[in-house]
Amino acid sequence: MSEGRRLMAVHAHPDDESSKGAATTAKYVAEGVEVMVVSCTGGERGDVLNPKLIDDPDITRDLAEVRRREMARAAKILGIRHTWLGFVDSGLPEGDPLPPLPEGCFALEPIEVTTEALVRVIREFRPHVITTYDENGGYPHPDHIMTHVVTMSAWRAAGDPTAYPHAGEPWQPQKVYYSAWSAARIRALHEAMLELGQESPYVEWMQNLDKRPERTITTHVECAEYYGVRDDALRAHATQVDPDGNWFRVPLEVQQRAYPVEDYELARSLVGVDLPEDDLFAGLPTDLTEADQLCRREPERDPEGEPVVVFRAPLPQERTEEEYSAHAAEYDAQEVGDEMTEVEGHHDRDRRQPGQRAGDDGTAASA
Ligand SMILES: [Zn+2]
């Protein structure tokens, strides 16, 4: 029974909620879960990535406002509630040496300021479960990494009555997840396209898969039914997503057959779990009042002040240079498309450092 449960998804920019875990949120909404998406920044430093809209003066005049309208449309399509944390997009620094981050941006805000803002939203919405990105941010955009840092910091503080006492009544969400574009998903979609004799949009991702640390996927949420809703939400971010781009190259029914789940990595759990699992709320009391009581109770803390957890994600294994080279050799001969980073789904396309291989920054493997 999901009725009345509350799920919060913390994202960096408007459109990330539609490219990462969107079908999961749509599914839970359909089951009666209240879902709140938090966008830490307004995506103000984004570029227009849809070739059909690139020179539209109405868009370039005030991209931030256009993105607010796009976000509102996507929220309606997904059926989620949405709130802005109100911080300013840090942009993706480019050049060698890298320029400093722009003054006043999200990634440079003092951690107490960003944490308090999110603690306030957590204590008001009172989620039982939170999703965010892993410690690499899914890929190393300063806002994505900071989204991870702030979410973990706010998760730690939200249930502590001595932390930010003016930011609401303490509330301790019981589980935190990292949303993932797993290697298994990319492989399955890639192979399904090749089996059909069609061009795979994942060649470049495949090439870089083994270079990423392997994540431990703990949770597969069945949500294939909502892939169409996810695509509609993505298309609502019209300035950020090319409707003829790679996002939409794998036919819906192929995706639904080849990989009908979205993947998550359980980061922290205060309740007992039985892994792998297929529900973000697994382990929580089925009775809503009991689940709420659990979140109102102050967790035990270790000497560092961390809530004492029943489960904590292991740190990912780094691949050795030899392991990576052996794998990359298989793919180097293949033609690598240049559009892949578009799959990332927002404003950071084609901003690799000079001399850097496609996907070295992880963009090609994150979406
Ligand atoms: Zn983003």
Automatic annotation (TrEMBL):
Its cofactor is Zn(2+). GO terms for molecular function: hydrolase activity, acting on carbon-nitrogen (but not peptide) bonds, in linear amides; zinc ion binding. Residues 1-23, 314-367 are annotated as: Disordered. It comes from Ornithinicoccus hortensis. This is Mycothiol S-conjugate amidase. Binds 1 zinc ion per subunit. The keyword Metal-binding applies. Keywords: Hydrolase, Metal-binding, Zinc. It is an enzyme of class 3 (hydrolase).
